[in-house]
Write a structure and sequence with these properties.
87 residues; mainly alpha; Cytochrome Bc1 Complex, Chain D, domain 2; globular; binds heme C
């Protein structure tokens, strides 16, 4: 294998965001952002439809409190995580 190829492989392997599943990113965002105003909610407490609704509501609450709200993309990733863990 050429040295250049090995280098590229190394770059891919070391850049976790390339490899990370959206669900891991969702969990990370959840852990970073969803415990700021209250205790972490229990993912299994709600079903997927309820999570969709709650996430929109939380986005508005963050705006309202002049926090940087989650982007729609971030919200989607958190939703993906919560949906898998939901009841
Ligand atoms: C800007 C502050 C803030 C952030 C950040 C926040 N929440 Fe909330 N959340 C609230 C408030 C205010 C309530 C209602 C009062 C309470 O339960 O403390 C609430 C309530 C909830 C509830 C109970 C149901 C409801 O709507 O009252 C859930 C579930 C919830 N939040 C989930 C989340 C998730 C998931 C995130 C991360 C995406 C999040 N929250 C981030 C402010 C926030």
């Amino acid at each position: 294998m050429k040295l250049k190829n090995i280098f590229i492989l190394f770059l891919i392997a070391s850049n976790s965001s390339v490899m990370a599943e959206p669900i891991d990113e969702g969990k990370e965002i959840f852990l970073n952002r969803c415990g700021m105003c209250h205790k972490y909610p229990e993912p299994s407490a709600l079903n997927a439809t309820q999570w969709k609704f709650v996430l929109k509501k939380m986005q508005k609450r963050m705006e309202f409190l002049k926090m940087v709200p989650l982007t729609d993309e971030e919200n989607e990733k958190v939703y993906e995580y919560l949906r898998r863990m939901s009841k």
